[in-house]
Every structure is written in structure tokens, then in C-alpha cells.
Amino acid sequence: MTPAFAEAVRATTQPCTLLLVTPPLLAVLATRGRWAPLAAAVIGAVVGGWLFMANVIVLSGTQLRVSGVAVAGALLVLAAGTLGVRWMRWANDVRVQSAIAAGVAFIATLWWRPCVGSELGAILTDAGNDGIAGQIPAMTAYMLGAMVPVVAVALIVRVVNPTRRGLSAVIGATAVGALLLGGALALGRYDQLVSTLTSWSTA
């Protein structure tokens, strides 16, 4: 399992992993690195990774567009709740944040089109040939490795503990990122986005 974890950590430096890492990372920023939403995001990514390995759910067409709008909206809700917007204070509840963070991370795994390394390739191949159950530990390790940048960002936010102004700037950047990503998918740019990220990764 260690090689799978290490390969995933290395893969986070490649552009093709951005679709997997960016949504949960934005969720963690929007919740100020709170532990429960972070844990929920990691769990959502792991469960999504299992389904990705099993090829159970494949989003396409309208589903991709709707999911892009849903993720962008969910991240904006998190941002509004954290900033204390009066009619969105309910979104600052840790249970609400955790549920949204898990959902965002889960959907991100359905968008993910990895640049397959040797370890992930072996996991996917063995899952298809010998069954999924035996590859769950290795896939779990891989997804945990992929979430290392998300955990690192949460730790940085907790350590820095930004001021109100700094927090507003971080949340504002999160909202812009959410709108750009969600807008790209809502406008049907998914294939173009994936091909661009893949070409950058292999350049």
C-alpha cells in the first residue's frame, strides 16, 4: 500500500490531478480547515475512489453540467456560512459543512481522469481481473495520498489562523475558484479541460 500512497502524492504535482484535488481543497479553505469537514472530505474522496475503481458511476453530458453547478453552489454556501452572511449562518454548522465537504470530494472523484502511473494502473487492472474487494486497501492508500495537499492546506490554515480580513480574502479566492470550475463544467467544457490538463501533464 505504501507504493500506491507515494505514487498518489507524486501525482498531485501533475495538472491531471487538479480536478480531483481542487474541489475538496476549496471546501477545506471555505471551512477554515476545521477538522470534521476535512475528515469528511477525505472519506468522501476514498469512497469515490472505490467507485471510480469499480467504474460504477460515470458522469457525462448533462450530468457533468449539473454536477459542476452543484459543486460551485455548495462551495459558495460554505463560503457564505463561514463569512457569517446573515441568512446563511446555518451553513456554518459543522455537520452541514462536513456533509457538503464529503459530497464535494465525492463528486470530484467522478470528474477525475488520472494520468495513470504503474501502481494505479495495477490497481485498476487487478480490480477488473480479480475483483474489486482485494484492491480496496491499495485504492484507499492511493486516495489518501491524493488528499495529502488538502490535509496540508487545512493544517496551514489552522496554524496561520488568518485575521478577519485575511479570511475574507481566502474565502473570496475560494468563491472565484468555485465559480470558474463550476462554470467551465456547466458550459460543457469538461472534455476540453481534461484534455488540456492531460497534455500539460505529459508535456
Please compute the radius of gyration using only Cα atoms.
17 Å
Helix content: over 70%
Reported for the largest beta sheet, the result is: none
* Helix-strand category: mainly alpha
Binned strand content:
under 5%
CA distance, first residue to last residue: 28 Å
Q: Assembly type of the shown chains?
A: single chain
What is the N-to-C succession of helices and strands?
HHHHHHHHHH
Mean pLDDT: 83
Shape: globular
Q: What's the total count of β strands?
A: 0
Number of helices in the DSSP assignment: 10
Low-confidence stretches: none
Overview of the structural elements:
The chain has helices at about 1-10, 20-30, 35-55, 60-80, 95-110, 120-130, 135-145, 150-160, 165-185, 190-200. By secondary structure, the protein is mainly alpha-helical. Helix 2 (about 20-30) runs antiparallel to helix 3 and helix 2 packs antiparallel against helix 5 (about 95-110). The mean pLDDT is about 85.
Give me some keywords for this one.
mainly alpha, 76% helix, 10 helices, 0% strand, 203 residues
Summary, kept brief:
The protein has 203 residues and is mainly α. Helices cover 76% and strands 0% of the residues.
Secondary structure layout:
Layout lengths: L1 H10 L6 H13 L4 H20 L7 H21 L11 H18 L6 H13 L5 H11 L1 H13 L3 H23 L3 H13 L1
